[in-house]
C-alpha cells in the first residue's frame, strides 16, 4: 500500500495532491527549525533524566 490511495481520496475530496509531491517532501533535508527542535528535545530529555525523571522543584518535607 502506497501513498496513491490517500492522494486519490484527497483529490476526490477537493484537496488535489500528487503522490510525487509527498515523495519530494519526504526526500527533503530537515529544516533549520526541525533540527533545532530535535536538539532541544534531546536537551530537555537529558535535563529530565539528570533531575531523577521528575518535573519541578523539590517539595519541602520530602526526604
Please tell me about this protein's structure.
This protein is mainly α and 63 residues long. It has 3 helices and no strands.
* Overall geometric form: elongated
Number of helices: 3
User: How would a textbook summarize the main sheet?
Assistant: none
Radius of gyration: 22 Å
Overall helicity: 55-70%
Question: Mean of the pLDDT scores?
Answer: 88
* Number of DSSP E strands: 0
Oligomer: single chain
Distance between the termini: 56 Å
Backbone structural class? mainly alpha
> Element order, helices and strands?
HHH
Beta-strand residue percentage = under 5%
Low-confidence stretches: none
What topology does this entry show?
Layout: H1 4-12, H2 19-27, H3 32-50
Short characterization:
The protein is built from three helices and no strands. By secondary structure, the chain is mainly α.
What descriptive keywords fit this protein?
3 helices; 59% helix; mainly alpha; single chain; 63 residues
Amino acid at each position: 500500500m502506497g501513498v496513491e490511495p490517500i492522494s486519490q481520496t484527497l483529490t476526490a475530496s477537493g484537496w488535489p495532491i500528487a503522490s510525487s509531491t509527498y515523495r519530494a517532501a519526504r526526500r527533503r533535508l530537515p529544516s533549520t527549525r526541525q533540527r533545532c527542535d530535535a536538539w532541544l528535545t534531546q536537551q530537555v530529555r537529558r535535563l529530565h533524566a539528570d533531575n531523577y525523571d521528575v518535573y519541578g522543584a523539590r517539595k519541602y518535607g520530602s526526604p
